[in-house]
Amino acid sequence: MNKNTIPIPISMLEVGKPLPVDVWSGTTGQLLLRKGQPILSAQHRDKLHDHEACSSAVEGLAWQQAYERMVHQMLRDGVDIQTIATASMPSTILERDYVVGQQLSGGWLDLQEVLRGVLYQGGLAINPLPRLAGLERKCQALLTADTDDSLFCLFQALADGSLGYCATNALLCAVVCELAGQKLGLDPLQRQTLRRAALTMNIGMAREQDSLSRQSEPLSAEQRTLIADHSLRSVDILVSLGVDDDDVLDIVRWHHAPESPKAMARNFASRRLLHLADGFVARMAARKTRMSFAPVKAVKSMVMGAEGEIVGVGSAIAQAVGFYPPGSYMQLANGETAVSVQRGERANTPWVIPILDKDGMPIVKYVGHNTATEPAYAIATAVNFEKVRLTINGDKVRQARERIPR
């Protein structure tokens, strides 16, 4: 078997069911079955096992994607887990199953640049689906590798107007939804669909979104119409690009009206989470017409006056990122200004690094402190992003975090 082939899951093949891939012998390289031919018997299946049957890597990965899509649909249809566990491989592969994603390297700012390009190009984007699939997978890898560093990078990027707002908003919403979705018990496939919707929900007004974030004049009638219609416009663009996942399209279409009776009932929890996450991130971004909300204030405004399950969703977001998420600022009891770098045991007790002394002078040496156990470094009040006019050295932050107990 060479690097361009992958083994076939023979035990998951059903007798009499046509196979959607060409089947090759991993020992001799001989073609054993052509695409569309079925396995004739249990003995025939055993013979494939003896030959170490394989498919091309391209077809095999697409088949795996088709299987994951099938399982996702079964879960949504309420099929019991035992039945799903014994399901055989599907006999068809859709065109979109071949979109397995480009490999992307770099960190969050590199992904922000790639995503901004796709969102800006909209319906004219070149080869967008592989780029988005690869981007979504890389986002998840970075988040899993170091959640606190991911939050730090993205909240710092949110405060940097030169980077634009649309792509940073999309990445942060995807991350917040993933982390809060875990708290709320959403299954992995629900969270994946939600991440994909978050990344593309504003493709219908990406350029305008960046312009509006810097605009000091009141909205024009044309701009109000654009904002009101952008969800439907985003769906139209995504469909034109080849997105045919009904759940992604539903969440994008109704992310500003999650309770719409026209929306799919099965996606209600996802739409509601994305709606709240979007509002939370938006409040933390400064506008020409207002200052940014400090995170703790953004959390409170998200649930203020809310009742029932919405309070629970807001609480999940707060627990996931903290009242003082990595990358945000606060004043300490000793008068110093610090940046949050790691979530603590509770939402209001992060680990912080002082960056300005009580006289407003930069602190050169970065040292992490636990706001829960060190009284001098307890948080006195939150500080808005734009009030801290100091460039944070990300490498020094990471080095200081390495000395923080895990």
Would you give an account of this structure?
The chain has 406 residues and is an alpha+beta fold. The protein folds into three domains: 5-93, no CATH class; 108-320, Hypothetical protein af1432 (Orthogonal Bundle), CATH 1.10.3210; 329-402, no CATH class. The chain contains 15 helices and nine strands. The protein has helices spanning 42-50, 57-76, 81-85, 108-121, 128-145, 147-158, 166-184, 188-200, 206-213, 221-241, 246-253, 268-284, 295-303, 309-321, 394-402, and strands at residues 5-7, 23-24, 31-33, 54-56, 329-332, 337-342, 351-356, 369-370, 379-383. It has a five-stranded antiparallel β-sheet. Strand 5 (329-332) and strand 6 (337-342) form a beta hairpin. The radius of gyration is 24 Å and the shape is globular. The mean pLDDT is 89.
CATH homologous superfamily annotation of the largest domain: Hypothetical protein af1432
Give the CATH architecture of the largest domain.
Orthogonal Bundle
Number of folding domains? 3
Low-confidence stretches: none
Write down how many β-strands occur, each being a DSSP E stretch of 2 or more residues. Answer: 9
Radius of gyration: 24 Å
Q: How is the topology of this model organized?
A:
Layout: E1 5-7, E2 23-24, E3 31-33, H1 42-50, E4 54-56, H2 57-76, H3 81-85, H4 108-121, H5 128-145, H6 147-158, H7 166-184, H8 188-200, H9 206-213, H10 221-241, H11 246-253, H12 268-284, H13 295-303, H14 309-321, E5 329-332, E6 337-342, E7 351-356, E8 369-370, E9 379-383, H15 394-402
Antiparallel strand pairs: 1-4, 2-3, 5-6, 5-9, 6-7, 7-8
Pfam families: HD_5
Protein name: HD-GYP domain-containing protein (C-di-GMP phosphodiesterase class II)
Organism: Rhodoferax saidenbachensis
